Each structure stands twice: as C-alpha cells, then as structure tokens.
Amino acid sequence: MDVSLNIAGGGCTSTVFLMKKRAALLLLLITGICVPMEVAFGQAAANENGTSVSSSSSSSSSSSSSPRPSVANIGSLFTFDSVIGRAAGPAIAAAIGDVNSDPTVLPGTRLNLISHSTNCSGFLGTVEALQLMENGVVAVIGPQSSGIAHIISHVVNELHVPLLSFAATDPTLSALQYPYFLRTTQNDYFQMYAIADLVTYYGWREVIAIFVDDDCGRNGISVLGDALAKKRAKISYKAAFTPGAPTSHISDLLLEVNQMESRVYVVHVNPDSGLSVFSVAKSLNMMTKGYVWIATDWLPSVLDSLQPVDTDTMNLLQGVVSLRHHNPDTDLKRSFMSRWSNLNHNKSTGASGFNSYALYAYDTVWLAARALDVFLNEGGNISYSSDPKLSETNRSAMNLASLRVFDGGQQFLQTLLRIKFSGPSGQIQFDLDKNLVNPAYDVLNIGGTGSRRIGYWSNYSGLSTTSPEVLYTKPQNNSSNNHHLYSVIWPGETSLVPRGWVFPENGKPLRIAVPNRKAYQQFVSKDKNPPGVRGYCIDVFEAAINLLPYPVPRTYILQGNGQRNPNYNELVQAVAQDQYDAAVGDVTIVTNRTKIVDFTQPFMESGLVVVAPVKEQKSSPWAFLKPFTIQMWLVTGAFFLFVGAVVWILEHRMNDEFRGRPSKQIMTIFWLVCFEIICRPLILLNLHFLLVDNFSSIRQYFLPLHRCREISRRYRGTNAEVKSSCNGNHSLSMHISSKNAV
Fold first, then answer.
1. How far is CA 425 from CA 84, 85, 430, 457, in A?
2. CA quadruple 712, 713, 715, 716: dihedral positive or negative?
3. In angstroms, rounded to a whole number, what is the distance separating the alpha carbons of residues 535 and 558?
4. Per the database entry, which stretches of residues form a coiled coil (predicted)?
5. Is-cis flag, bond preceding 491, omega within 30?
6. Secondary structure (DSSP) of 713-728
7. Which one, of 151, 130, 20, 32, lies nearest residue 389 by Cα?
C-alpha cells in the first residue's frame, strides 16, 4: 500500500532516495512541531484516485468549484497486527463496504480506503502518516497510538485534514492545541474519574499507579491523581516502565511497590503487553488475599479478543476489577456481532479478535461518510491549494512546495462536529469539548473462566447497578450516597473488602509531635523513661493505639525547649507542612487550624467549668442557713413586720380575733404572717361551693374572711343555715345547708 514519492526533476523512483526523503520529512516534522508548518501533497496522486484537486499558483491560493467527485479517499492509520488493530481492520473494511453499498449516503461517490500500518513504532508511524497524506485524503481514521496522534495532529493542523481516532484516549488530545483531532471513542478523562469513584466507594485513600511511560500512560495517570485529590485520596507512588520493557524490569518494579504501604494497584498499560504485569505479579505472590488490582479498559479488550480465553490466562487475573466501554445492547450492535465471524479478516484468528474498538472503528467510517455527504450537499468541494509559506523551499530536494492544503478542511471539520446518529457503539454525538456524549463504562470482576458485570459507571449517575440508558430517563443524582455495586470476589477468593494497605517492610515510623510545656505538665511533659513523654494526652493516645489490631511504629518528638510553652499555631503548621505526621497534646480546635489539618474527636472539652479542690468536709444540719447573710435576715424580718402590720390594720376593725389583749393580737399576727409567707404559697386554694339537693351533702371549705362575709350576707333572709368558726387564721370554716340553694 506504500506509494513511492516522485523525485523532483524526474519521473523515476529510487528506493534509497525514498528512505532519505522519509528521514528528512520526519526531521522537518519534529523540528517544526512548535513552528506552524503548512503541508500539502502532490496533485498527481489525488488525480489518480479520482479526487478533485484544484490548481493554484505559487503566489496565491485559489480553488475552483468542481462537480461531485466519483471517488473520495479516506486514510486509515493503525498497527495491523495488534489487539486493537485486529479488531479495527475488519470493522473499517466492513464499514467502507456498507457505505458504498448504501444508495442514501454519498450517492455517486465511492469511498476509497488507503491503509498504512504504524508497526507499533512512533518513528515508522509518523513516516507512514506522512506518506498517507500524499494521497489527498479528506480524513484520516486513526491512529490508535496517542503518542503518534500528538505528532500527526501538528501535521493535520496545517493540512486541514480531520484526524478521527477510534483508539487514542489520551486526555490531553482534547486540548485546543489540536483543533483537527477528533476522538470517536471514550476519553480516558472519564475512565480515571470512574476509577476514583471505585476507590472512594470501597473506602481506600491511597493507590499505586502502574503504567507505561508514554503520552497515554502519563497523562491518564495525571488525571487520575486530580480525580483522587477531589475525593481526598491520592496516588502514593507512580510506578512507570518503558514501552516494551523486559520481564526482569517489570519484576524489579513490582518488588519495589510490594514493599510499600498501599495494596491498591491501578494498572494502565497497553493491551499488547499488559498481561505480563499480572504474570509477574502472580509469580511474586501478589495476587493473593489483601491485594487489590484495578485495570483500565485495556484488559477487557484483550480478553474479548482472545475468546475463548485459555485457563492459564484466567488464572493470572482472578479477582481483578476492570472497566470496559459501555455499548448499549441495541439491534445495531447485535446485527454487527452476528456478522463478525463472516467479515474479511485474518482467518487464522477465527471468530476471535473482536473488542469494543471494532465498534468505534466501524462508526468512525460512517461518521466520515455522513459528514462528507452533508459537506458535498452544502456545496463543499474536495479541493487543495498550495501554501505560499513553502514557496521558499523550492531549492530543497524534498520539493516541499508541492505539498497542499485541503481547502474545505475547516468546513468539513465543523460538519463532523454537527453529525448525530446511532451506531453499533451507541450514540455518536460530540459535546463542546469534542468528546462523545454520555460516557459510560461497565464495571467487571474477573473470576472463574470469565468476567462478571458488577455494575456500571457514567458521568451522569456514577456507580450504579442500573443501566445508564435507564438512568438517563430519571433526574440526575451523582451523589456518592447513591452509588451501588454488586459484591466482588477479590484476589484470594474472598468477598471481604480488602483493607487496601499494610505496614511497609521498609516504612518509617510515624513522627508524632508533642508540645514540651512548662505549665500544666499533667497534660503532656517530657519523661526520662520510654517512650520519652508522659501525661494525660499521651495516655489517651496510647490507649487508642493499643485498641488497633496491628502495630503502629511511632516516634515522639518534643516541640519546644521546656522553658516556656511552645507556639501551638507553629506546631499545627508543622504538621500541615509534613514535618510531622501527627501531633498529640492539649491542642485547641479552632477554625483556622481546621482549614489545614484534621483533628480527632475531642476527648476533653473545656467550656464553662468550675475548678475546685477535692477534699472532705464535715457536713452540718444547719448548712442550709449559710446562704442567709445578715442583710438578708434583716430584710426578711422587715417584710415580716410590714405584712403583719398591714393584716392587723385591715382585720382589726371587723375581726374579733384581732382584738383583746396585746399579747393575743401579737400572737395572731405572728401566726398569720407565718402562714402567708411559708405555708400559703405551697397550697393551691380552689374555692368552689358544691351545693346538692336533698339536704344530704355538706361540704366544708376554707375561705378568706371577706368571702365568708359575702356568702353570709347573700344567704341571710333565706332558709339556709350558715355556721362559721375561726380556724385560727384569716380563713373560716363554713357549713352550709339549704333546702333551696341558689
């Protein structure tokens, strides 16, 4: 499929010169990444394939309208012999055939596919991409490598040729730096947030990232770190290895991370070499109880491509949790799956080789075809023009002046962004960030001879056991309290959620800061005996440590010289700056400090308290008189005499009890005042008369004197008999009987 380059000044071709030209083009590409370089390719190759190409002069760019072309070239760029390539190749070929056989799409125009293999090499992939551009393609499907996509994006930016990648998932490719790059698969940005939700769901706070040190690996793990930070978790260590690293290097890397504290591993590698990580982990006994392995979407792609999977491979992956692209189970998907075994692909693989990337590759061809149909219907032309910036390179043997730019590239790109349709992979529609709408993943648990789906993740509802298509019809609720998954069988064949961490073999003890106080040393102070400190706060901390089911190595470090109390704000700031791992002492919880460190629940509250010495005192039966001072006794006596005088004045004229000898009157007043002040407030007097018929009921009531007189006057002249007698105070006992009581 390679097309030889025309040597300037002659019509023959030279293999040696071809290789030199490839190297020169690559060198020019690498040095020109930061400097805009407009590139176009020869008109002759485009004319050979039936694509309309306009002619232009070196001083100005002009394009003439042309009729609808009979052939439109579309390029594809991926590694043919790879996990993704073996799935994408047949799918792209099938899509080209379906488009050309559909009379409703591109009538009168046939798509011509030009494929180049990147051979799993960034260098060769870049050279193949440059050769592909010579054929006057209107769009390029691929590449699958994010690293190659970064380089080629600079080329297509100048050529105005859209780059439609079905497998480059690097989140940074969505930047404004690459306007002509369009991702037709899920962005790893969402996958990393799905992993962060998984980590938070099971209560882990630290993970170790194992990844390939390339653009896709580094940038994906960077997003994972940001996602975990938003949930107050973190990546404790980033274990990177080079692409194609030998097994010995991976073994050394896993031995290193196995000595660390975290037991939660996130594996983000390439599908073609990812299984070697689990093979080494199995040999190091790292697939046992207590370990957690989370793999990104590369693992289901490998397993789906190997169907049926051999037993040895499955034994390496028992208990692994992984994510897979969620593709709705529609009629389009089922129809495509039924055709897969009959597609024209490598017969040696039989019915295997399929994974979700085949669906995205198939829909990518249809996206380009539908957009090209709309582009032509709206009056667009497939025409090219030379770039005046390259006119000064005519003296170069590379003949860069012959490179041309797709005139309708900008219009075609906007058309691609407007296309909406449903394909086997799901809804094909782009948001404002040029990502596919409704990103979602299946959460899988590898076990036995296959995998089991334990739930879903989507940016609409988070983790759920309900399909995203159902949740899209309901109000959005992405709260962590609403996240649910089915049970997981973890490594070691246990359903108990692993703790996710252990004490590292080479770990350092906790650095515990202790204030070296001068005052109130009962709380905390320096001690000559181990562990070097003592006090109430230390006793509480040690008691809490002893309740843990595992040992916690720790070292106490005194803060201050003991001559005066240390500055507690500086102590808290030192903990926040990671000079100490924690602090133990009488540290007051205030607002400013809670913004930079976390406090435990207070085990001692200050508040308003009364501090008194604890000592025994003899109690006295007259202790109740202690609150009564001399002034209080004088005031009480004055009120006593005042009340007695008032009562005597009011009752002396009408009450015989307040007459007679002075000693009698004084005694009466004394008892009356005592009753009023001491006894009467304790008694609720409810004064009622209950009069009944038949002379059978006689009730006795105690009434004030003036009420007795009112009742006596009321019943005078009636048949009622009123008897009263003094009860020794200002109330009287009255006995009333009546035949006709009113």
1. 15, 17, 14, 16
2. positive
3. 13
4. none
5. no
6. HHHTTSS-EEEEEE-S
7. 32
Q: How confident is the model at residue 244 (pLDDT cuts 50, 70, 90)?
A: confident
Q: Give the integer Cα–Cα distance in Å for 182 and 156.
A: 11
pLDDT tens for 424-457 read 999 999 999 999 999 999 999 999 888 999 999 9
Peptide linkage before 515 cis (omega within 30 of 0):
no
Question: Do 93 and 131 touch, CB atoms closer than 8 A?
Answer: no
pLDDT of 301 higher than 90: yes
Task: Tell me the HSE value of 320 on the side-chain side, using a 13 A CA sphere.
Answer: 32
The two tokens of residue 24 are 């020169």
Hey, what are 438's tokens?
A: 């409704």
Say if strands 582-583 and 700-704 run parallel, antiparallel, or are unpaired: unpaired
Average pLDDT over residues 730-739: 41
Phi, psi (rounded to 5 degrees) for 505: -70, -35
DSSP at 342:
G
Amino acid at site 58: S
* pLDDT(247) > 90: yes
Kindly list the distances between the CA atom of residue 26 and the CA atoms of 30, 145, 391, 403, 516, in Å, as whole numbers in the listed order: 6, 17, 20, 15, 66
- Whole-angstrom distance, CA of residue 651 vs CA of residue 729: 11
Give the mean pLDDT of the chain. Answer: 79
Question: How distant is the alpha carbon of residue 471 from its chain centre?
Answer: 19
Distance of CA 87 to the CA centre of its chain: 32
Query: What span, in angstroms and rounded, lies between the C-alpha atoms of 491 and 318?
Result: 6
| Dist. CA 296–CA 190, nearest whole Å | 11
Beta carbons within 10 angstroms of residue 727's beta carbon: 10
- Which residue type, as a one-letter code, is found at position 306? L
**How many CB atoms sit inside 10 A of residue 370's CB?**
19
DSSP 8-class letter at 535: S
Is the pLDDT reported for residue 39 higher than 80?
Answer: no
C-alpha to C-alpha distance for 559 and 220, rounded to whole angstroms: 42
Q: Confidence class of residue 15 from pLDDT cuts 50, 70 and 90?
A: very low
Would you place residue 482 in the very low, low, confident or very high pLDDT band (cuts 50, 70, 90)?
confident
3-state secondary structure 556-605: EEEECCCCCCCCHHHHHHHHHCCCCCEECCCCCCCHHHHCCCCCCCCCCC
